[in-house]
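Backbone-to-sequence.
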């Protein structure tokens, strides 16, 4: 579904990505790991067309999306749950979900606002609340729900549980596990490696703008030296 080939990106004279390569098949879940400042967010922005690529290619579902506009990439079937949630403060929960409903890719099991409310009952209780009236955890649930109702082929979650209370984090992990089991293709950035290895099928570790390690969840689970060397845990 997604092929990233020798991608290089820079901010003016400062190069951040140095030939990143990986591929993701439909139905797979991948953990994107690494310490802060190692290039994870730049890689995501490069895939989404938010950051221009100076070299290499990004292929999605057979389409070369390298340096394409973000709205075109979104219509092809990539949804993002951005770092910081970025919900609209002046829209209600229900308005968020209703405004983004789409099924361009004829998903056999349609995500609707009603189904999102089943997944996150807390949002159903607050469906008339504005985005600015939600807690951080509720905003993250809404950001995930907003991505789901577009019925995308791929969902990218940047810092999936950053800054959330432990109980809310558990709800997010439960949601991601369900999506993974249902065959939703995912890329998840998060620092809680011990939880990601139970959800993602394989992982990529970034170090100084390059792929330092790639492998299965079992391989990552078994080699705690990788955690210390690249993740600082």
């Amino acid at each position: 579904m997604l092929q990233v080939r020798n991608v290089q990106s820079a901010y003016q004279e400062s190069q951040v990505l140095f030939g990143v390569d990986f591929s993701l098949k439909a139905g797979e879940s991948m953990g994107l790991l690494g310490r802060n400042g190692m290039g994870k967010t730049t890689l995501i922005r490069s895939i989404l067309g938010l950051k221009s690529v100076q070299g290499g290619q990004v292929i999605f579902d057979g389409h070369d999306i390298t340096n394409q506009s973000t709205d075109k990439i979104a219509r092809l079937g990539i949804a993002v749950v951005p770092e910081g949630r970025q919900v609209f403060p002046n829209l209600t929960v229900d308005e968020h979900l209703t405004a983004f409903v789409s099924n361009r890719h004829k998903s056999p099991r349609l995500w609707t606002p009603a189904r999102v409310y089943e997944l996150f009952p807390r949002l159903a209780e607050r469906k008339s609340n504005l985005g600015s009236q939600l807690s951080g955890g509720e905003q993250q649930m809404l950001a995930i729900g907003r991505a789901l109702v577009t019925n995308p082929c791929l969902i990218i979650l940047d810092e999936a549980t950053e800054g959330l209370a432990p109980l809310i984090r558990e709800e997010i992990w439960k949601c991601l596990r369900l999506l993974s089991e249902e065959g939703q293709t995912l890329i998840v950035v998060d620092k809680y490696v011990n939880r990601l290895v139970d959800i993602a099928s394989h992982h990529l570790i970034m170090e100084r703008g390059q792929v330092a390690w790639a492998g299965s969840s079992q391989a990552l689970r078994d080699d705690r030296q990788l955690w210390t060397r690249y993740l600082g845990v």
